[in-house]
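Input chain follows. Return structure tokens only.
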Amino acid sequence: MVRLFLYGTLLNPRLLASFAGRDVPLSPATLHGWRRVVLPGTGYPTVRRARGVVKGAVAIVNRATLARLVVYEGRRYRLTPVVIRTAQGARAAYAWIAPGGTLRDWP
């Protein structure tokens, strides 16, 4: 099983289920020391190291579901190890991060 920190479009449960092939439970989580910004040339977010907190959610998925989500995320995003905070405390997780984010906040 893989713990994923989601902070963008996959926070939409219907979109997440359509690409995962099943409903995926989400729990609130935050990523400290990062900022959600616009990825240049797209309408999508990425995160970059900065003072701040990114609100998102944690999903725990199996390898088959992860493989489906990798296809959705595409080649620009890389699964990157991060430490998130949940109601249970700090947890190791992975987040899809695309290098080269702008300084503009993602709405």
